[in-house]
Structure formats: C-alpha cells, structure tokens
Design goal:
This protein is α/β, with parallel strands linked by helices. It has helices at residues 2-19, 21-29, 59-71, 79-87, 105-117, 128-132, 138-148, 168-182, 187-201, 208-212, 216-223, 245-263, 282-290, 330-335, 337-342; strands at 33-38, 40-41, 56-57, 75-76, 95-102, 122-126, 151-156, 159-164, 228-232, 269-271, 295-301, 315-319. Helix 4 (79-87) links the parallel strand 4 (75-76) and strand 5 (95-102). It is globular. The structure holds zinc ion.
C-alpha cells in the first residue's frame, strides 16, 4: 500500500514535470519561499529492508538541491532571517530554509560539508533526550527488531497476531502495519511495547540514540559553526497533541531550557515531532508561542506566503523525501505545485 502511494506521488510529480504545469501554477502557488524538511543525510546503502528510507537523502541529492536553488537565484537563509523577512514583510527575493529534525550525527558528517560548500545556513531541531543518549527512537528500534526476526508476534487489540518477516517484502509490510498502529497508541504504550519487543528479539534499544544522534559535547562544537542554528524538538520526541496541556507545555519549555543550558545560546525555533494533524494543531501552536518560540514548523506540506506571518508557530514545510530523490522533481518542489496538489490547492493550512 505504501509502495502504491509512493508510486502515485512519484507519478504526480513526474506528470507536473513533464507537462510543465508547475510553471503555469508558479505565480499562484510559489509563495515567497519555502522551508525544506530533512532528517538523515548519508550515503545510500543497499540493504533490501529500509523502512525508514523516506527519512534519508544522499549528500549528492542535497548538493543537487542547493545547486538548483542557487541557479534559480533563491536566497538560502536561516530561520532567524526568515522570521525577520516575514515580520518586516521583506519579500523582495524568494528564499529557502533548510531544517533537519532529531539531531542526527550524519547532519554533521554529511550535510555540513555540503552546506559549507554553498555557504548555506541551516537549522537542526534537537530532542533533548536524544542528545542525552536516553531518548527512544522507536521507529528505528522497530526496524531493528523486524530485521532480526523471521516472524513477529504482537498483541494487537487483545489478539495475538503473528506477522511474517521472512523476506524483505514481508518485513516491509510487517513494519508498515506495526508502525501505523503504534502511531495511534499512547506514548507509554509505545514505550512498553518496544521495550518488550527489543528484549524478546535481542535489540539494545538504549544504544540507539547514542549511535545515531549527536551528544551534548558534539552539539556544542557543531553549534559553534556560524551556519548552524540549533532549535528544539521536545524532550522525549512525543506526540504533543496526545499530552495533557501542562505536560505538552513542559515538553516545549523544558526542552528549550535544557538545550539553552547545555549549549549556552538562545533557542528560539521549534519543530513539532511527527508534525502532522495528529501531532500539532491550534492548541500546540498556541503553546509554542507561550513557550516563547519565534517560529515553529510542522510537517504539513506547503510553501511560505506573506500570510504565514500571522501563523509563525504553524509553518508548513516541503519534504526532501528519500523515496523521490530525482533531480527532475526539484523545479516542481520549488514551484509550490507539488505541495499545492497535496493541499487541494489551498494556500495556508494553519487550522
Ligand atoms: Zn523528529
């Protein structure tokens, strides 16, 4: 099903490219700029089972994206500068921001050298527990569990279910089924289930954050680079919309305070974990404002329009998705036609 959806989206992007419809749509949907959303940047691997592949692009694709933006004369600016341009209504030049979620070490090792080549600023949103080495990246733990087993036994809604994991294809559908179901569970239930699965299948869940994410020491050096802005991404990488209000505000405010204390610099930009409608709505947008953030980004697809100045804690982004790393789609993404298509041709979606 996911593969089918991927193919439909790819076909849509290619249709826009081939028909050049994005040039016609551009004056209406391009907006004044866009915020790109990335996670991992690292060389491609040829393992057959990579269920989180949409979360990673290669350094080469990042390079191609920056080359394209420069060729279009689009300014690459920090979130701070984007905030200024929105507030002061300085829309003389189109802009792009680059944002990376979760604080992965490959952002330093593979993205930073490319960003330096283009003198391009970028923001990395850190979940403070990940930097502490105690956070739980359950979607990675789930991938590791399924990679180690021939079949997975789970209790789904009171029924013991056995999922085949003997081929890459079976592993992918087992992952999709468990991942989509787990996203609907309360935070503690996800945690308990993953702990049980990791124990049963011999995965060291506690090592994952340290393996993948930069520690405070690493972040201190990384944050010294003038191109780098560090933003917050909650303490525990929880779904804020599922927390009671006090807990949600604490995730916002305490993650900010912890990062500021560790890195000795102000933290004024935020990204909502998961970031879709299930994870960030009007209450979270207000809480991010109350916690003192100047901007907060969602994972809702869209370009930046002047009207976004009234919704600075509900900003949409354009995903650089690992499943569509084709240079031909870059003009489509920067035209805004692709995100407009996903949004049913509404410009701003902040409700
Ligand atoms: Zn995240």
């Amino acid at each position: 099903m996911k593969q089918f959806r991927n193919n439909v989206i790819r076909a849509g992007l290619e249709a826009l490219y081939v028909t050049r419809a994005h040039y016609l749509l551009r004056p209406i949907f391009a907006g004044v700029g866009g915020i790109f959303m990335l996670h991992h940047v690292r060389p491609s691997r040829d393992a057959g089972f990579q269920p989180n592949h949409h979360l990673e692009i290669t350094p080469e694709f990042l390079h191609a994206t920056l080359t394209h933006l420069r060729a279009c004369g689009i300014d690459i600016i920090s979130m701070e500068e984007m905030h200024r341009r929105l507030v002061e209504r300085d829309f003389g030049r189109r802009f792009a921001c680059f944002t990376f979620d979760d604080g992965y070490r490959d952002n330093r090792d593979f993205a930073l050298p490319v960003m330096r080549e283009f003198d391009a600023p970028f923001t990395v949103y850190v979940a403070s527990d990940f930097a502490q080495g105690t956070g739980r990246l359950w979607w990675v733990a789930l991938q590791k569990v399924i990679a180690r087993a021939d079949s997975i036994e789970v209790d789904i809604g009171g029924t013991a279910v056995r999922l085949d994991a003997s081929t890459d294809e079976a592993r992918q559908s087992a992952f999709d089924r468990l991942h989509d179901w787990m996203r609907t569970l309360p935070e503690q239930a996800i945690r308990d289930l993953m702990t049980a699965l990791c124990l049963r299948y011999g995965v060291d869940e506690n090592a994952i954050a340290g393996e993948l994410c930069m520690s405070w020491d690493e972040l201190r050096l990384f944050a010294d680079d003038p191109l780098v802005t560090i933003g917050a991404h909650t303490i525990s990488h929880c779904n804020l919309a599922r927390q009671v209000e006090d807990a949600a505000l604490d995730e916002l405010a305490t993650s900010r305070a912890r990062i500021e204390a560790e890195l000795q610099r102000p933290v004024t930009h935020f990204a909502y974990p998961y970031g879709d409608r299930m994870a960030a709505g009007p209450r979270e947008f207000a809480l991010a404002r109350a916690a003192g953030f100047k901007t907060a980004v969602t994972t809702r697809p869209g370009m930046i329009f002047p009207g976004c100045a009234d919704h600075l804690t509900a900003l949409p982004r354009v995903s650089l998705n690992g499943n569509y790393q084709d240079q031909r789609i870059l003009p489509v993404l920067t035209s805004g036609a692709a995100t407009a298509m996903w949004n049913g041709f509404r410009r701003i979606d902040a409700a």
